[in-house]
Design a protein that fits this description.
Elements (H helix, E strand, L loop, with lengths): L1 H18 L9 H23 L5 H10 L17 E7 L12 H14 L1 E6 L11 H13 L2 H7 L1 E10 L2 H15 L15
Helix pairs in contact: 2-3, 5-7
Organism: Bos indicus x Bos taurus
InterPro entries: AB_hydrolase_3 (IPR013094), AB_hydrolase_fold (IPR029058), GDXG_lipolytic_enzyme (IPR050300), Lipase_GDXG_put_SER_AS (IPR033140)
Protein name: Alpha/beta hydrolase fold-3 domain-containing protein
Length: 199
């Protein structure tokens, strides 16, 4: 009886240490701790699958994250009488994870579109380890060139003077890189004064 109780006590201490994360003052810290625990668990399962030789760790993490994907919805019935802001968003994920249809990125895009009354274009790019750099950069660059086409901007009701590009983590890196490329490329000269003298 004593050894069993001691075993359960040790197990509870390890479980509490695994789950607990000291957080700054937030309203519902248990939600963040549960999210962190689920991410840690999926990472450990992915590492275990790679150790067993079942799959590459990134493919296993992609499998776990694909469970959170949402199906796209059409926006063809949305009309606008005035030109709106445009935001070109690039998802993060270390160039090997994530997708714009993952629940968190989809929610972020919808929330941003609603709050700032903007057209959000969220793009995907081919992921590593299957596709190596600079494929990710090229995918985002081609998508941005498509979005900046005057006919596309007009069809989406985007004001060409109010366009931003952003991203998180690796997406932020890609956003910065393609912005520099757009500023230095010939196609930006015909549309907007994005070109810098230092290109």
């Amino acid at each position: 009886m004593g050894k069993t109780s001691l075993g359960f006590l040790i197990l509870e201490i390890f479980l509490a240490a695994y789950i607990y994360k000291p957080l700054p003052d937030v309203e519902e810290p248990w939600k963040i701790m549960l999210l962190d625990t689920s991410l840690q668990t999926s990472r450990y399962l992915a590492l275990f699958a790679e150790t067993l030789g079942l799959s590459h760790v990134m493919e296993a993490i992609l499998f776990f994250s694909s469970i959170q994907c949402v199906s796209p919805t059409s926006d063809k019935n949305i009309t606008t009488k005035s030109l709106r802001r445009g935001l070109f968003y690039v998802h993060g994920g270390g160039w090997c994870l994530g997708s714009n249809d993952c629940y968190t990125y989809d929610l972020l895009s919808r929330w941003t579109a609603d709050r700032v009354d903007a057209v959000i274009i969220s793009t995907n790019y081919r992921l590593a380890p299957k596709h190596h750099f600079p494929v990710q950069f090229e995918d985002v660059y081609i998508a941005l060139k498509w979005f900046l086409d005057p006919q596309i901007l007009e069809s989406y009701g985007v004001d060409p003077e109010r366009i931003g590009i952003s991203g998180d983590s690796a997406g932020g890196n890609l956003a910065a890189a393609v912005t520099q490329q757009v500023r230095c490329s010939a196609f930006s000269l015909t549309m907007y004064s994005l070109k810098s003298e230092k290109c």
